[in-house]
Prior knowledge:
Rossmann fold, 6 strands, 15% strand
Amino acid sequence: MIKRVVFIRPGETDWNRMxxxxxxxxxxxxxHGREQVQRLAKFIQPLGIKALYTSDLRRAMDTANIxxxxxxxTPIPDRRLRERHIGEWQGLTxxxxxxxxxxxxxxxQANPIDYQIAGGESRRQVVDRVRACFEDIMQRGxxxxxxxxTHSTAIRTLLTDLVPDYNPNSHAYSNSSVTTIERQWDNxxxxxxxxxxxxxxxxxxxxxxxxxxxxx
Length: 216
């Protein structure tokens, strides 16, 4: 039975640095992001992770390949762990979205759960696919501790669903951060680590937190 889940957010990309919403665009890690993940690899290597599941987006796969090599395991990609598809807003900054799509953005704010961005997904659709993937991972297993490389929306979604009294607006999720949950009983979990970046040793890292909250 899986007793602990280690959530990992991918390392930095150039779009993170420019504060552009990436969605499902195939943006690779930049040099800074690869160095973040190299440091992360040293941190998680002793944790005893036996299976590593990952979003199949480029930045997540770049992260997974670095970590998997350090741990001596093969990453298992699953498209259901992808970030929210934000359609025609992908590649834009928050300021550009507000300026160019004011009516659509207002609809998102009025109905954050069910509003579907043109060409993209609603938050409810993300919740459904991410939770289905998580349940499959719980069935498939892979040891007492598994790692999941995914994105801020997915991490918020799962913590909201699994951890009693978790406030999805309480915390940021930084590039290459680690968040862990530990099973208490059945499908009830508690938080062990939340957005831990101690492995970066004060290396700069970004959070898209305010932008992501407005999308959630």
